[in-house]
Amino acid sequence: MNKPLRPTDPGERRCLKCNQEFRSSGAGNRICRDCARINASLKVSEAQLALERGVKRLNGIIIEEPCIYEVTNTDSQFN
User: Fold this and answer.
1) DSSP letter string over the chain?
2) How far apart are CA 63 and CA 74, in angstroms?
């Protein structure tokens, strides 16, 4: 890896999972083929992924999930 690649350039990049260099087709391709195969074989639910990722943050501040309000007995407002 001599010079930094532009995001659209194919080239040698380091895998974000195993840190080995591999031939990438562009910036969107940051996981090597071997690690991609391992990821595809794992059976992980979205709920489990959310637990492993932890809370959402923006610049270090926890992002609150939007509240879901339950609407009850709306007919009485219009009578």
Assistant:
1) --SPPPTT--EEEE-TTT--EEEESSTT--S-HHHHHHHHH----HHHHHHHH-S-EETTEEPPPPP-PPP--GGGG--
2) 30
pLDDT at 40 over 70: yes
Residues in the chain: 79
- Which residue type sits at 45? S
> For position 35, what pLDDT does the model report?
92
Query: Cα separation of 45 and 12, whole Å?
Result: 32
Helix/strand/coil for 58? strand
